[in-house]
């Protein structure tokens, strides 16, 4: 069972990212502040849900959250500062856009670059433990999937509408046969099947 909050006496934002292990497109991050009594049937880590379930939960989260924001760092910035720093930057941008100032941050994962003047905790597999991180994971994932589906229209060979930029066999083969698109991350090694990054489920 997912818990409602980590610091129950503070206004807390949950943060998560999507697209870190992709070959193409931005990394997206979301920050979400939920009401203290928030409950949503089926809310879980976005990787445990299918596309339809995430799309059904997203508008409810966006309507009922006290505040939420989604931000991105594009492929060019990723190449300049590396994917880890880009993930932190995307989270910082999302936090900055929140209409309610959080007093505490809970971050999915084991590393984070501190946001100015707001304490935080890193929660390993936090998207399966806390509702606000799970909500952030769904918003980051659905907003990124939506972006990838739009740019897939102009670059159908890479099948981004299906793989969302993740390193599937078909995606890697397309890059090796026809070359990278303008949206591909140039610093990512396409020939290595594992890409030295954790593979994420497309859903």
Automatic annotation (TrEMBL):
CDD domains: RNase_HII_bacteria_HII_like. GO terms for molecular function: RNA-DNA hybrid ribonuclease activity. PROSITE patterns: RNASE_H_2 (PS51975). Its EC number is 3.1.26.4. A divalent metal cation binds at residues 16-17, 108. Manganese or magnesium. Binds 1 divalent metal ion per monomer in the absence of substrate. May bind a second metal ion after substrate binding. It is found in: Cytoplasm. InterPro entries: RNase_HII, RNase_HII/HIII, RNase_HII/HIII_dom, RNaseH-like_sf, RNaseH_sf. It is an enzyme of class 3 (hydrolase). Its cofactor is Mn(2+); Mg(2+). Pfam families: RNase_HII. Its main location: cytoplasm. Residues 10-200 form the RNase H type-2 domain. Belongs to the RNase HII family. PANTHER family: RIBONUCLEASE H2 SUBUNIT A (PTHR10954), RIBONUCLEASE HII (PTHR10954:SF18). Endonuclease that specifically degrades the RNA of RNA-DNA hybrids. This is Ribonuclease HII. It comes from Pedobacter albus. The gene is rnhB.
């Amino acid at each position: 069972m997912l818990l409602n909050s980590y610091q129950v006496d503070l206004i807390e934002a949950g943060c998560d990212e999507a697209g870190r292990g992709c070959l193409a497109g931005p990394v997206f991050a979301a920050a979400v502040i939920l009401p203290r009594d928030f409950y949503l049937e089926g809310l879980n880590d976005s990787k445990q849900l299918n596309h339809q379930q995430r799309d059904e939960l997203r508008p409810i989260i966006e309507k009922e959250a006290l505040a939420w924001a989604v931000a991105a760092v594009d492929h060019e910035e990723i190449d300049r500062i590396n994917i880890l720093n880009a993930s932190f930057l995307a989270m910082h941008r999302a936090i900055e856009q929140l209409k309610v100032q959080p007093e505490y941050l809970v971050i999915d994962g084991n590393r984070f670059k501190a946001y100015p003047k707001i304490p935080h905790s890193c929660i390993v597999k936090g998207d399966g433990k806390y509702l606000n991180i799970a909500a952030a994971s769904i918003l980051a994932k659905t907003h990124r999937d939506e972006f990838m589906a739009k740019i897939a229209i102009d670059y159908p060979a890479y099948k981004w509408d299906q793989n969302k930029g993740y390193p599937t066999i078909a995606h890697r083969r397309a890059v090796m046969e026809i070359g990278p698109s303008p949206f591909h991350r140039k610093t990512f090694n396409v020939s290595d099947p594992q890409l030295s990054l954790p593979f994420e489920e497309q859903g």
